[in-house]
Specification:
heterodimer, A: 377 residues, alpha+beta, Butyryl-Coa Dehydrogenase, subunit A, domain 1, Butyryl-CoA Dehydrogenase, subunit A, domain 2, Butyryl-CoA Dehydrogenase, subunit A, domain 3, 11 helices, 51% helix, B: 397 residues, 3 domains, 4-stranded mixed beta sheet, 4-stranded antiparallel beta sheet, 10 strands
Chain lengths: 377, 397
């Protein structure tokens, strides 16, 4: 057993933290919340040049050939910095599925562009039912000659406003079992018939209403096997849940650190409030939430990297962090008092993100159900 | 990073599992790692003695200790593996662990003579030790203890009282923290003694616990003469011994979680097999969700414990981490017992002995027993104080 990180991983950690502290100040974070695109293209390019966007992709497509655990390190620092932009969408929702299930042609066409920072991707899965289940996939794709025609509305599509390729999950055959008859398509973002509307959210991220009106897609754009897409979706949700958990982890760590510092600095009744036992116990509880999250996050990421089945472990950490991150940010507000409630302070950025992150890629209820199934209940 | 055990460690784990499958009865319900069951129930106590002999025969007591005192000089990870398996199955282990902890103190602070005298009997499983720390007016504030030890020519004379001593009535020896200098700051006037509990002047009274188990003892010292060679460490150096214990023997929170896994699995099994209105309880969305949450908590806690143990094997300081673990473990067992009794409904409150009892009354017992688990081995509050000061560097109040 060795629970330490390699020297390379430690370096990745440090360089990510230093880079983001420098290049992603909170002024940029706030600016991007109001921005139509939601990310800074120059910063995106710099991240690509650093090899971050290509991190988990095979070297032959311009990637770094790193593991999911390495990706998690990066994501933790992105969560700490509240990095705005389509990183999880591009890398985890779009890139990794193509790397795993794409044809050689699809991989050659798209992965190098991702790695160079020239293509943004996302996944269009959820619909107005707002659930991550197969029965909710109602958008239909019909064969017409040598292509498919897709129509319907996808809702809560991350970063569709800037996506060059959107992996659309659509129903291609009716079946008594809703998990059958689902196909994934790699759709060009400039295809005629696509409209995108930005939705404003609590976290200032870019959620979209994504409408397909008779969008023509060549048959060669099918990702994986037709009618057998739901298994892939299940796996993508797991990766995304783990990636989101990593971001949450970094955010929770940052909130803990800034709150400890505040408790040391803030003087009331002639002494730092961090000397009051009740504040100490609040902070001790927060530290238990944060430190316990970290081991479980790294264990799940390590298992995924090693190819060990880890559906349960992923649900454990996303289910746990969905509540723990919210608890930590709420407690941090209580300790900060009025200043934390203002836009002048960073804390509110994390409080808002914690709520959104809790609900994305399965909330605690969703992952409890996954764990229940894994327990054979 | 690698969360797997090494091959030889994995083989050792299987060996321990096989040993336990053999040594424990098929319907073994398990005892809690605080020792309250086997230190109260005569039959369980005898089973504990039997287990000790079997473990000693395997060479598994004092695994890490030097060979010259009967140990195996095995890596610390072996000891952790052994503990986890014993505690997961609910084998009686508390008395052994108390003896091993004190053996560890003797290794650290003892004279060569003390090591040769006291360690081999522990390795053979021949001796039971009790820990004499708490007093009526010294709980979390241990340093305010008042039991007096006055130095005479050939011995120290002890007068006073210890309390909440689990299993002292079955123990042969005890470590006793006593005040040897009342005129210095309270941490600086304490000495640790190794006391033969059969010494004249010692009397005991067993105290029934809320569960009905008389596992606690009040121990009275009336002019008890303790030879000078039984001082552990330096005179007035007892606080260092106590702190060493705090720094090294803090896996109790992890034990609670490992023990809770057994009860949790039993509860899940019950919910899968118990049908209400033609459907298993485990399909009831409310029950299902709450069980899954416990599963998540237990898994997160186990991983935290894994890290704690790994840090200990690397010689890293673990005081703050252990103090994070402790409330985590105690809280989970309380929630588990609360949920368990609730799921059993009107059967929940039934006594263990009732012919109608479900899960042999385990949930009712644990509901009562777990009330102690956020207190014993360091209260949640004391643990969080330590997390705040040692771990987070917050200023003292």
């Amino acid at each position: 057993m060795d629970l330490s990180f390699s020297e390379e991983q430690e370096m990745l950690w440090k360089s990510a933290r230093d880079f983001l502290a420098n290049k992603c100040p909170k002024t940029l974070v706030r600016q991007m919340e109001e921005d139509e695109k939601g990310y800074a293209p120059e910063l995106w390019k710099e991240m690509a040049d650093l090899g971050w966007i290509g991190l988990p992709f095979p070297e032959k497509y311009g990637g770094g050939g790193f593991t999911f655990l390495d990706l998690v390190i990066l994501l933790e620092e992105m969560g700490r910095a509240c990095l705005p932009g389509p990183f999880i969408s591009t890398v985890v929702l779009g890139g990794l599925p193509i790397a795993k299930w794409g044809t050689e042609q699809q991989k050659k066409d798209i992965l190098p562009k991702i790695c160079k920072g020239e293509a943004i991707l996302t996944l269009a899965l959820t619909e107005p039912s707002a659930r991550y289940d197969a029965v909710s996939v109602q958008v239909k794709a019909k064969v017409e000659g040598d292509h498919y025609v897709i129509s319907g509305t996808k809702l809560f599509v991350n970063d569709a406003n800037v996506a060059d390729y959107i992996i659309v999950v659509a129903r291609t055959a009716d079946s008594a079992n809703p998990e059958e008859g689902i196909t994934l398509f790699i759709v060009d973002g400039k295809s005629p018939g696509i409209t995108t509307h930005l939705l404003r959210t609590i976290a200032g991220d870019k959620q979209c209403e994504f409408t397909l009106n008779k969008v023509k897609v060549p048959k060669a754009s099918v990702l994986g096997k037709p009618n057998q897409g739901w298994g892939m979706v299940g796996e993508i949700i797991q990766w995304a849940a783990l990636a989101k958990a990593a971001e949450m982890m970094g955010g929770a760590q940052q909130v803990l650190e800034m709150t400890i510092q505040y408790a040391k600095d803030r003087v009331q009744f002639d002494r730092p409030i961090g000397s009051f036992q009740i504040i100490q116990h609040y902070l001790a509880d927060m530290s238990i939430d944060v430190d316990s999250s970290r081991v479980s996050l790294h264990k799940a990421a390590w298992m995924l990297s090693e190819g060990i089945p880890c559906a349960k472990e992923i649900s454990v950490i996303k289910g746990w962090l969905s509540e723990a991150y919210r608890r930590v940010t709420a407690q941090a507000h209580q300790i900060h008092g009025a200043i934390g409630f203002t836009k002048d302070h960073d804390l509110e950025l994390y409080f808002r993100r914690a709520k959104a992150a809790e609900l994305y890629f399965g909330d605690a209820d969703f992952h409890r159900e996954m764990v229940a199934q894994q327990l054979g209940m | 990073m690698d969360f797997r055990l090494a091959q030889d460690e994995e083989a050792f784990r299987r060996e321990v599992q096989d040993f336990l499958a053999e040594a424990l009865p098929d319907d073994w319900l398990g005892v809690d790692p605080d020792g309250h069951s086997e230190q109260a129930d005569e039959k369980l106590h005898h089973f504990d003695l039997e287990m000790r002999r079997k473990l000693a025969a395997k060479g598994w007591l004092g695994l890490q200790w030097p060979k010259k005192y009967g140990g195996q000089e095995a890596p610390m990870m072996r000891q952790f593996i052994l503990e986890q398996e014993l505690i997961y199955r609910g084998a009686p282990y508390w008395a052994i662990s108390a003896a091993l902890m004190i053996g560890q103190f003797i290794l650290q602070f003892g004279t060569e003579e003390q090591k040769e005298r006291f360690l081999p009997p522990i390795v053979r499983g021949d001796v039971q030790w009790a820990v004499g720390m708490s007093e009526p007016n010294a709980g979390s504030d241990l340093a305010s203890l008042q039991l007096r030890a006055v130095e005479q020519e050939d011995c120290f004379v002890l007068n006073g009282q210890k309390t909440w001593q689990t299993g002292a009535h079955y123990a042969d020896w005890a470590t006793v923290y006593a005040r040897t200098d009342p005129d210095v700051p309270k941490h600086k006037g304490i000495t640790t003694f190794l006391v033969d509990l059969k010494s004249p002047g010692i009397t005991m009274r067993r105290i029934p616990q809320m569960t009905g188990h008389p596992a606690f003892c009040e121990v009275f010292y009336d002019n008890v003469r303790v030879p000078k060679e039984n001082v552990l460490g330096e005179k007035n150096g007892g606080w260092r011994v106590a702190l060493f214990g705090v720094a090294t023997e803090k896996s109790f929170g992890y034990w609670l979680i490992n023990s809770g896994r057994r009860d949790f699995e039993m509860l899940v099994q019950y919910c899968r097999e118990t049908y209400v209105d033609g459907q298993p309880l485990s399909k009831d969305p409310l029950i299902r969700s709450r069980l899954a949450q416990l599963a998540i908590d237990i898994e997160v806690g186990r991983n935290l414990g894994l890290r704690l143990n790994w840090m200990a094997t690397k010689g890293m300081p673990i005081i703050a981490e252990a103090c994070q673990m402790k409330p985590f473990g105690g809280n989970i067992l309380q929630r588990l017992a609360n949920l368990g009794t609730q799921i059993l409904g009107l059967y929940g409150p039934l006594d263990e002995q009732s012919r109608w009892a479900k899960l042999r009354g385990r949930m009712k017992f644990l509901y009562l027993a777990s009330a102690a688990m956020t207190i014993e081995g360091g209260t949640n509050e004391a643990s969080k104080n330590t997390v705040a000061s040692v771990g987070l560097g917050l200023p003292r109040g």
